Each structure stands twice: as structure tokens, then as C-alpha cells.
Amino acid sequence: MPRDAAFMGRAMELAERGRGLTAPNPCVGAVLVREGRVVAEGWHTAWGKPHAEVEALRDAAAKGVDPRACTLYVTLEPCNHQGKTPPCTKAILDAGVPEVVVGCADPNATVAGGGSEFLRSRGVTIRTGVREQECRDLIADFLVWQTTDRPFSILKLATTLDGKIATRGGQAAWISGEASRREVHRLRSWCGAVIVGGGTYRADNPALTCRLPGYDGPQPLAVIVSRSLPDPSENSNLLSSRPDRTVFWTTSAASGSARAARLADMGVTVWGLPSRGQAPEAGLDLAEGFRLLRQERGCHYTMTEGGGHLAGALQQQGLVDELRIFQAMKVLGDEKARSSFAGRNAMSMEECWEFRLVEQTFFDTDLYLRLRPKE
After folding, report:
1. CA distances (Å), 303 to each of 49, 87, 90, 270, 336, in order?
2. How deeply is 5 buried, as exposed, middle or buried, from its count of CB atoms within 10 A (0-12, 13-18, 19+)?
3. Handedness of CA 115, 118, 121, 123 (dihedral sign)
4. Any idea which residues carry the catalytic annotation?
5. Contact status, residue 17 vs residue 26, Cβ threshold 8 Å
6. Could you say which residues of the chain have pLDDT below 50?
7. What is the per-residue pLDDT across 182-195, written as a single tens digit (0 to 9) for each?
8. What is the DSSP letter of 353?
């Protein structure tokens, strides 16, 4: 039904409000509908807080809405187990909601289908699969946390129309516009770590902080991927302003060097990662770095911001969960300028990495694309 899609769309919008706050729980939204109109709504606001269904029922109570005359739309199957909060199925039954429309089933194999079946067995009408793929995309991060030991990995690229992220000399400021840069800082506000390559670190001397006006939340870790470590005495925004929030991913040999020890004395974290092969050009095993970020530093989201070889290595190693591109309406036209992805010798179009579009919009004149690798 067309109205089903619209009501689920509103629940999806609400779910996004919890992004970055609910981890390691999924983002979920819910609306109560009566006579073709949304009369109450809620979303999971933060980890440990009431789930979306409970928030929607609370909103209904505050507005004097009787849930017994409503249909509940929820992006994710209601939980039927006791966690940080009581099961949502109990709240739904206690409120007397007669019908529940579910976007997607719970991906947790141990509980999948349990909430729907429990409600159905007690007389609640259950309909499932409304905008299912979009609702599954809402919980792509949760799927990663459930099936791996690493954070959800976002790759951010600001490119020209011809796919360049910097001039041949490395100049990248500014490809995208001010509105795009604000969005990047918003993303940084809920990412546990921002990752760049050694070339970006040396060329840009970045701070890698969230600089939204009025932002006073925690700053992300700054992670630099480099086979060579910097001189601790050099001029560096990261080493001088927040060494305790700076992490280097480097070789096992470099992590045991005197320079690494001096950096550690400053408060910097140096993690030696294993190599993916014996050849000198073999890259670092970046998955181990991601695992350490989650296990040692509690990171649930990371965002990688440059450069092309690092982007290529992440994709090559299956470590891009989401690609966010800010594409400026500009053309550099220089074949030697730096490309958004680099490091491969692909000889045919069959070797292309393929993505599927999840979202597209504009930030002023910049085209914004959010994509996921094709399964």
C-alpha cells in the first residue's frame, strides 16, 4: 500500500536521529497511525534508553491518543528479549496495539522472527517487509557489529567530477563547498576515529577534530596510517595539541623503534600491524587496526578521509562499509592529479569495484552520494 511506504518513511527519518548515539544498538524509528494520519512517534534516542516503540507509546500517552485504535509502524522487528530495557513486545501488548507493520526482521539469528511470532501468537496482526531493503540499510552498522569484531567503516571522499581528490602536487583545499564541510564535521561528531594516510598527515598537518559551532562533545581519535613515524619534535597539530588522542598504524618494526618509544612517552599510541605479504610493497593488515580500535578504544564508527592509496587499500581488504562522496561541480582535467582510489593495476572493466546507491542529495552545489559495496 502506498500509505504504508509513506508511514515507514517517516519512521525511517526518525530512526536517523539516533545515528551515532545508539551504538552498539541499532537505529530504530516508530510511528502510530490512526485513520491515515501519524498521531504519535518515537525513536531510539541513545544506548540504554527506551526503544522506539516505547517512545512512540509514551508520545501517544502524552497526547491522549489511544493505541488500541492505532497501527504501529516500526523499522525493525520489535525485540522479545530482556536487555538494557524490557522487551518491546510486552509494551505493545500492554498498550493493546492491534496491528504492527515491520520494516525488516531482526538480523540477530538467535532472536530473528521471535518478536513478530510472539505478537502474532497473541492476536496482533503483523505485516512485514515494508521498505525492507531501506530499513536494512538503516541497521547496516548494527549488522557489522553483530558479525565482526571491528567498527563500521565509512570512507569519505571529496572529489571533482573527474574523480580527483587533489592536484598532482597534493593541494586539496577546497574541492567541496562550505555546506559539505559542515556535514563532514557533523559526521566527525559521532565517529570514534578519523583515519588518514601518512601523505595526508605530512601534507596537511591536520587536526582531524569536529569544529561545528558550539560542539562540546568528545573529539574523535586521529589515526594515521604510515610505514614511517614522524619525528616527535616536528611541528604537528596532533602531536602538540592532543597526543593522547592520536594513534599511528605502522609496521611491526617501526612500532618497536626508538622513535615509537618517544612518541609513546608523549602519550601517542603506536600500533604495529602485521603485513599482508612478504614483498616490500605488501600493505598493512588494516583489519587488525580496526579490531584494535573497537576492542581497545571502544570505537563503533570510523571515517577515513584520505588519500587515494588508503581508500584503495580499504576497499581491497573489504573494509569499506559505506562510501560517502561529496562531488563538486568542477573538473581538474589533469591525468596526473590524485585520484579518489589508487594502487591497483586493473586491466578490464570486470575488475571494477561495484557499489549501490543508498542516498543522494545536494549540499549547495555539491552532489552528495551515499553508497554501499554490492553484496
Report:
1. 26, 33, 38, 19, 26
2. exposed
3. negative
4. 53
5. no
6. none
7. 999 999 999 999 99
8. -
